[in-house]
Amino acid sequence: MASFSVVSNIASSNAQAHLTGTQLGLTKALNRLSSGFRINTSGDDAAGLAVANAYRNDIAIVNQGIRNANDSLSQLQIKDGALNNISTLLDRMATLATQAANTDDTTTLTTLQNEFNQIRSEIDRESTVADMETGNVSLDFSVFVSNDGANGVVSGTLNAVDTTALAITAAAWTTSNDAAYSLELVDAAVTTLGAASGMIGQLQNRLQFGISLATQTVVNNRAAESRIRDANIAEESANMTRFNILSQSGIAALAQANQTSSSVLSLLR
Questions:
Q1: CA-based angle 63:67:69, to the nearest 5?
Q2: Distance between CA atoms of 40 and 36, rounded to whole angstroms?
Q3: What backbone phi and psi angles, to 5 degrees, belong to 136?
Q4: Average pLDDT score over the chain
Q5: How far is it, in rounded angstroms, from Cα 185 to Cα 266?
């Protein structure tokens, strides 16, 4: 049975309660539309926020790993350039030794020997500049490229390319036979240098593959985070429209409910 009261306006209370919920929904929809995120506070989705933050952390780690790999790739390219130059120097040493092996003229041997030894010194200098001299700790190559523990590291040991590692002794030519022996050493050094170049090439390829994988990992992690954290703009636009309409109708209903209480007073006239 319906009752009439001026003390308790149940219709007004109901309208206010619904209007409060509508305003909360409208505020949330506006927050999501303005920020672009579905999760703006922990209360929006606490579990989802924890998962999304884990993805974001992985992305930050892998992005730094990509930078590490690119920096190391640049270092390997510098070393590769030095090895190419040393290869050219070995070619010149082979030419000098071959020329010296064809003569026993002391003056000619001395001239050729001096240039040979100068080139030998240049090889040592360039190997030091490239940090590839014997005993250098940087020959132990290691790059952290991902967050997968031990499997996230690309590592290897570079070969030294100074004259000690290449086993090229100083020339002391008195006969053509001495020069022929130096030529044998240079030939062996070319093989040793090729092995050093091969290791650098292998590490360059591994880093490039690692960068490719890490880049794809970032894309996949970003997509996974997006599905959890980002707002569905189409859905939130629809929600905003719905809550706007409900807000307007709720205010109208509240006004009507308040007017109903006022009409009860006419019974007292």
A1: 110
A2: 9
A3: -75, 130
A4: 88
A5: 120
Banded pLDDT at 1 (limits 50, 70, 90)? very low
Q: Do residues 159 and 45 touch, judged by C-beta distance below 8 A?
A: no
Q: Of the candidates 220, 209, 207, which has an alpha carbon nearest to the alpha carbon of residue 58?
A: 220
pLDDT in tens, 88-114: 999 999 999 999 999 889 899 999 999
The whole-number average pLDDT for the span 124-139 is 90
DSSP 81: H
Reported as a single tens digit per residue, the pLDDT across 152-184 is 888 899 999 999 999 999 999 999 999 999 999
Q: What is the value of pTM for the model shown? A: 0.76
How would you class 20 by CB atoms within 10 Å of its CB: exposed for 0-12, middle for 13-18, buried for 19 or more? Answer: exposed
Q: Which residues, 6 or more positions from 194, have their beta carbon under 8 angstroms from its beta carbon?
A: none
Residue 201: the pLDDT is 94
Which CB contacts under 8 angstroms, 24+ apart, belong to 112-116? Answer: 112/173, 112/179, 113/171, 113/172, 113/173, 113/179, 116/171, 116/182
Q: What is the DSSP letter of 50?
A: H
Place of tokens 């949330």: 28
CA–CA dist 24, 243 (Å, integer): 9
**Cα separations in angstroms, 185 against 167, 215, 249:** 7, 45, 95
